[in-house]
Each structure stands twice: as structure tokens, then as C-alpha cells.
Known about the structure:
CATH class of the largest domain: Alpha Beta
Order of helices and strands: HEHEHEHEHEEHEHHHHHH
CATH superfamily of the largest domain: NAD(P)-binding Rossmann-like Domain
Structural class: alpha/beta
Helix content: 55-70%
Shape: elongated
Distance between the termini: 24 Å
CATH topology of the largest domain: Rossmann fold
Number of helices: 12
Number of domains: 2
Amino acid sequence: MAEALIKGIVAAKIYAPENVFISDIRTERLELLAEKYGVAPVESNAELAAKAKTVVLSIKPQNMTDALGSIKDAIGGETLVISIAAGIKVAKIAGVLGEMAIVRVMPNTPALIAEGASALFANERAKSLLDKALSIFSSVGKAVVVENEDLIDAVTAVSGSGPAYYFLLMEEMVKAGVKLGLPGDVAKDLVLQTAKGAGLLAVEADKNNESPAELRRKVTSPGGTTEAALKTLAANNYSRVITDALTAACDRSRELSG
């Protein structure tokens, strides 16, 4: 995810590459990113924190305590801190760094191709700096704001984990296509293009206030093939399965957040 953000920031010219400082325990990784994007590696987290006015914590949750400890004595009081670590609440970060402007973000993996969905929560001190955080995540897709940090758990269930639900649907559609007689490569190509086309159509339709439900109704002819498929899904409690799955993801997110 860090590389996706670097790529987006540089491409959108939010910051000049030489003003984007990066730190990582893997020297070879720093060298690769520096060569690829023209960004500036530094020798330590503390050096980065001392230089930057905006610090993005793109680290694994289990490494957060050590990472915060490495920057707490170097970071400036006016620095904007952005965390994309799953399950790490603003209070935990503030507990180590003190009262600072902190934005917690839940992105998702399509950010890797600049098609991500990110939701941001800003604490009180960060609200005046929210546009800066939004510009960063808008460079890798669509970014929205939630006013209650607890909603990040719902965001995790809907969009954070969401790509996996679509991947599973595609996976099962390919398998079904093969069972119906299609060659594997043909089934795969049809499924991937259908998923892509449906998503793009839904986005375009939304610009005219046309919902996915309306698009579904348009493509469902009475007595036709689509209706037959949708009736089978309904008979198997498709709506309930989706609701239960997202609820389980949300509950697990709450558990991980403590």
C-alpha cells in the first residue's frame, strides 16, 4: 500500500518526489522505490519524522508500537499523522505521540491501480488538515470522510474487505462457466470483463442518480434467464448471506480494535 500511495502522490504532483521521504528496515526496498519514483530515502523513522510535515504510517498493526516509539521524540507537534494500520485507533497513536493531528484511514487493495476506496476519520486537531489527507488518498481512487471513528469497522466490512467478496464471486462464476461447458480461458475472460463492465456501468449510472437496484431491474426481463438466476439466489437467502458476511467482518474488526 505504501508504494501505491507514493505512486499516486507523485503522479498527481501533490508533492515533488524529492520532498517525499521514505523509511523502511529493508534497504533494498528503499533503493528500489527511490530509483522508480525519485523519492528520498532516509536512514531512520526518526529522521523522517523530523523532516516531514505529514507522516503516513503504512505499517503492519503488530509493528505499530515500535514504530511510534521510534518517532515520538522527533516528530513535531504540528505534524499531520496519517495511519492506514488496520485496527489501530486514534487514541492508541495519541497515547504515544501525544495530542496531535491524526487521521485514521481504511483503504483497499484497488489503490494499487489507482482505483481504491478509502474512508478517513480525523480527530479534532486534524479536521483543519483533512483536505491534505483527502488529496493523498484521492490520488489512488475515491476518498470519503466518516465523522465517527467507530464507523471504520463498517468501512472495513464494506470496502476494506470488499474486494475479496467480488473476487470470490468471479472465482465461482468462472467455475460455473466451466461446468456449463465453457473452456476455462473463455469463462475467465467473460467473467472478468463482465465484472469490469458492470462496475463501470454502475459508476456512470450513479452520476445520473441511477442505483444498482435500478440497473438490475433493467436487465431482468420477466420470465427470462436473469430472472431465473436471481430467483435461485433469492431462494438461497443471498441477501441474508451478504448481510451476515459483512456483519461478521465488522464484528471481527471491532474485536481487533479492542
